[in-house]
Predict the structure of 5-methyltetrahydropteroyltriglutamate--homocysteine S-methyltransferase.
Amino acid sequence: MTTKSAAAAARATVYGYPRQGRNRELKKAVEGYWKGRVTADALRATAAELRRTNWLRLADAGIDEVPTGDFSYYDHVLDTTVMVGAIPERHRSAVTRDALDGYFAMARGTQEVAPLEMTKWFDTNYHYLVPELGPDTAFTADSAKQVGELKEALALGLTARPVLVGPVTYLLLAKPAPGVPADFDPLTLLDRLLPVYAEVLADLRAAGAEWVQLDEPALVQDRTPAELNAAERAYRDLGGLADRPKLLVASYFDRLGDALPMLAKAPVDGLALDFTGAAAANLDTLASVGGLPGKRLVAGVVNGRNVWVNDLAASLSTLGTLLGLADRVDVSASCSLLHVPLDTAAERDIEPQILRWLAFAEQKTAEVVTLARGLARGTDAIAADLAANRADLASRAHSPITRDQAVRARASAVTGADGRRSQSYSERAAAQRAHLRLPLLPTTTVGSFPQTGQLRAARADLRAGRIDTAGYEERIRAEIQEVISFQEKTGIDVLVHGEPERNDMVQYFAEQLTGYLATRHGWVQSYGTRYVRPPILAGDISRPEPMTVRWTTYAQSLTSRPVKGMLTGPVTMLAWSFVRDDQPLADTARQVALALRDEVNDLEAAGTSVIQVDEPALRETLPLRGADRAGYLDWATEAFRLTTSGVRPQTQIHTHMCYAEFGDIVQAIDDLDADVISLEAARSHMQVARELAAHGYPREAGPGVYDIHSPRVPSTDEAAELLRTGLRAIPAERLWVNPDCGLKTRAWPETRASLEHLVAAARTVRDEM
Ligand code: GLN
Ligand code: ZN
């Protein structure tokens, strides 16, 4: 290989693109189809038009090879399930009746059948539908979607590369189907699955694909030797096929580690590797195995997960190093652009001086193209781009927004003692008991009450100018009044104000903190047709004014029972936002923590004696590689403690977590040093209570006894039984009674009934003691 020819051949590509369209056309068409307002043909036409528009945009921008098959009506892992014919038994008749309706039945369930389970796609906020497999699963190839989309792109005269979820990742993401023993390992199905991939690859080859990309992000997680062996076997088999396109094996989100030497030796034609963030370690590993002689390397140097302008000079230098390591080096984003919003140009409310720091999918595409051009033709060919980029980066680095000296001075003065309560847990517990005088098995809720149509209408009225701020706040106070009086009547011990003022638990705070940006059109897919607009942590964070104090004190003024203050914790604020890439996450977390600490202290000063700081995302931002976890948990728990440790011993700090199994983070939960934690537990029959007990968790806990994810009302007996189960793990003096999570997605009738049963259950069980 010669460096020069490798450079001259450099091409630009991406692995995937936002699906929904500029005006969220896909969401509207799919939801319209569900409601019967849009026909199947109209939905297909909208989808085809979106694909066409995206490909042409990519090609116009200078992308040499466009991805196909990344489009989805709902989720690309579900599409893969269809491609390999792994339709669960319970969905088969629906799929046979009508493929499209059957597809949505798997995604969302129907009156008769449950959907596939949904879970997070690695450490992103995208959710995929979990394949359900068992020893009886028979795979059959259905390449229609992949072949169809490839043909559409080829018909436009484009060079196209189908992108598939790779067979190893597909199996590693799967779970045992219902009724299959829990210890069934889907990876044992590999030999059955590979012929199906072989068939799809042959079909794609026949349809005109020169290259096909197989995504194997599961290989960036810690893998056992057996799993790595399976991957090696998979690519030996697929690489050995006679009738196949060239194979590009892609990974992203982290470094490949031991999987890299294995893939480098595999008989495939190219690797696509991530070189951003923690994945930058791929560079050293690649050099240490002698590069990829004879292979194509697609270098993911533009971060596909953040919203920041690329450092083009730094990326060019990485690319320059890579040139010596492969036969041909192409340029890409680090992962599919699915995880970023579409276009910064739509953001009219963000000042141009800040907007220039941002890059969404369109801008990232342009960066990839510029870098490929720079690599192929030399830096002179992109001199103007480099100069403009240098100016953008300098403007960001020197802005008072990213460099607030007061915030920085305060953050750097933080000492270990600042993150510690003044007394040990047992001393505090005694002070709190004396101060709060709660009954045994105290009842509470997790924070939000139903977000009614009226509340949403009030917010819409405020935005549209139909009511003013005073009118809006009047409506919020009326809602708080209702929530407080309901809780008093029901006999709940520690009340909440109900969070009626919150559009979203992160956005509400982001809007009030300096340094945070909100977008108007920055939608990213969370799952199916659900899109979110994560705020952007753009600068140094400070809190100009109290954010929740007036609502909590108003609520407290209506009752003599304690009202819990309610905040979103620093880790969750980061997890559900776009984070900075110009400083360690730990620094950003510390700034957010200090701003929240002021809020906690203000709440206490205003007379609040119970304050809850939610950290539902603590588990979900755990790094993919085990070796990185301790470092993460260190700063994450420190940020929580910094938020909550400024209060007096008798002030009770609560936290809340959900969405996860907690078994592997019990130590971290302990390290938060919160006085009380409420956790999701109803569906797992209080599993977490046993996990806390096994760890010797010394503090108070409220494993949920009411599953709020469903409109179903639990009976008093049911809740009491869960409580008794909880009591076998956690002593009565330390057990709380609460739902799994907030009630914002529930309606009032079921909320009322369920909470009445919850209080009745607590009374029943108290009487048994
Ligand atoms: N306090 C929040 C609520 O009740 C917690 C939400 C969450 O954990 N996701 O809505
Ligand atoms: Zn929750």
Observations:
- The mean pLDDT is 96.
- The radius of gyration is 27 Å.
